[in-house]
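> run fold Small ribosomal subunit protein bS20
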Amino acid sequence: MANIKSQIKRVKTNNERTERNRAIKSELRTWIRKVRKAVEAGDAETAKSALVTASTKLDKAVTKGAIHANQAANKKSAMAKKVNTL
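> ok
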């Protein structure tokens, strides 16, 4: 553990950001899984509503800095392709 005041604060803020990012990414994986399962089940209505929610969550994750903008765009595009096949 650091014994310099600014480094103690940096360690603390890094841990807080890590926990926040972990929670955000976990929620993203959950919504992406819901879209995938709805597509596999052939349920177009559920897939579309889950896609809207997942897209919103991805955009929020980008604004919070949890993921890169291109990663969110790629995930949204892939999900939209799968939903549009229904």
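Residues 15 and 21 are 10 Å apart (CA to CA).
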